[in-house]
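Researcher: I've been going back and forth with a colleague about how DnaJ sub C member 24 might be arranged in three dimensions. Neither of us has a model we trust, so I'd like an independent prediction. The organism is Tieghemiomyces parasiticus, in case that matters for your notes. Sequence below.
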Amino acid sequence: MRDTFTHYEYLEVLPGVSADDLKRAYQRRILEVHPDKLQQRQQSSPTSALATTNNFSKVQLAWQVLQDPRKREEYDGYLADLATRSHGIVHEAVTLDEMHFDE
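Model: Here is an independent structure prediction for DnaJ sub C member 24. You can compare it with whatever you and your colleague have in mind.
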């Protein structure tokens, strides 16, 4: 299981989401993770209160980045760079016959 999620995952949307759908997703998610709303629904323990505050902050940060077109473009570039580094880029196929080995 991953320890970190993307801003898109915190808002439960896909990267190509429209501005209107992004706003609706933010409004829905912020109500789901807002500490006051959660406290009304359940008796919070100190541990769950910390998790709630953490999720609330992450949803807010996700919104701050993704609602701004310039920040969103930079963030998308960052995600693309991460994906490239983690998967590598293959520029062309090379056969073993084309490789030279020193023995």
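Researcher: What would you highlight for our discussion?
Model: I'd start with this: The helical segments are 7-11, 19-33, 35-41, 46-66, 69-87. After that, consider the following. DSSP finds five helices and no strands in the chain.
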